[in-house]
Please model this.
Amino acid sequence: MRPELPSPCSECGDSQEVKVHLSTHFQSYTGGSGEVEATGGTVLAVLKDLDRQFPGLHFRIADEQDRLRPHINVFVGTEMDRDLGRKLSKGDEIHILAALSGG
Amino acid sequence: MARGTARVSASVNGSKPSKGPVRLLVGTMKGAFAIDGNATRDKWTIRDPWFFGAEVNHIVQDPRNRKVLMAGVKTGHLGPTVYRSLDGGKNWNEASNPPKFPKTKKGKEGLSVDTVFYMAPDHADHPDCWYAGTVPWGLFRSEDNGDTWKPVKGFNQHPDYDKWGFPSPAGKITHSIIVDPRDSKHIYVSCSVGGFFETVNRGKTWEPVNQGCIAEYMADKHPIYEHDPHCAVMSPSNPERLWQQNHCGIYRMDRPEGQWQRIGEQMPKAVGDIGFPIIAHPRDDNRVWVFPMDGTSVWPRTSPGGKPAAYHTKDGGKTWKRLDKGLPRKQGWVTVLRQAMANDHHDPVGIYFGTTNGEIWSSSDEGASWQCAQSYLPRVLSVETAKK
Model:
């Protein structure tokens, strides 16, 4: 008998390869690149993969409780979503942008 | 030489006055600056900023190894971190694991570090060890020269942590980390609207030491916690003597007693004894300097009457002398934040302060006269002295 495949994590979604667009604020972590590839079934999983590739990047986007930092916005496609548990679909692109106001 | 490092150098270098050029390490809202003075401390040259655009609450030199610099940094977007240099500022690296509170279990609200506010080298017996104080209240230790940081659990998980107080407008600030030069296990830490704390076992347990301080903003004026030290220092020449510029006055405490005495009541009534910074003379335990601010009515927190001045006591706080020669005599509405005043170890002692309107002022004669060393900086958050 073939061994049974582990069932996918209900909160993780199916892993997707996604394109991630990063504003200039983060590019010191990516060697100057504003467009990178990452893998994950959720936005949080993608952040973890980004951190594996670019150490320290996750903590610049979300705090230690995995709450999105106040002036960071994440878009899946064109839809802003602050829920890092959002599941991703095939072909999704993510934009991670910083928006600070005041002096 | 710096406020946070003087205590270590007291045990390492004794009380011999320093000589030669002085470097000021200045943290601002938009980066950190090194400002180099000559040996006579009357000519200053500024370098291009480090961490341009980022808020630098504190940048200090390690007195145990002058090549090491440590900075608490954040931008408005990207959150808090620590940068460190091992070559005197030529190159900087971000901590691979900056100060973070533990991740809580799902469904529970956990703390997150907002600001790395205060950097302090540990005792000379622990040459690669540093402490960081954060907003909200948190104490973190690095044992690898600032690359990775771990919470000091005894502090961050103090059984009364939730009773310490409430956030001030600037947040729950952890500052004035003082390591006893005689004993690395003995440490003091101050928390804004939290109080003054002491450990004798290197952070495992902490006790509040606030007796004698008054909390004017509380219904109970003498609570166990909820006091508001703005800045605290130890006399480098006498580790038994502590000084505190509190939200509610200037205090001195002589150990082993744990009783603060309000010495600011001897200040002129028109000036008062409210302010942010306090610095101690490197060799004379009767001498400190403060920089009063207006703590009346709605608390403008600018120089009283628009006339900025430092005040200095040479007798442990019995009398105070106004030091304002060279400073604006009117319409000088400056604020000097708690980490924005420092001294060197020369003889005479050099005194330096930065203002929230971006000026650095220096005195090479212990405050008797002042000159503006630098203008047009961003809001100054901290000033420390360093050796080149």
About this structure: The CA atoms of residues 91 and 292 of chain B lie 37 Å apart.
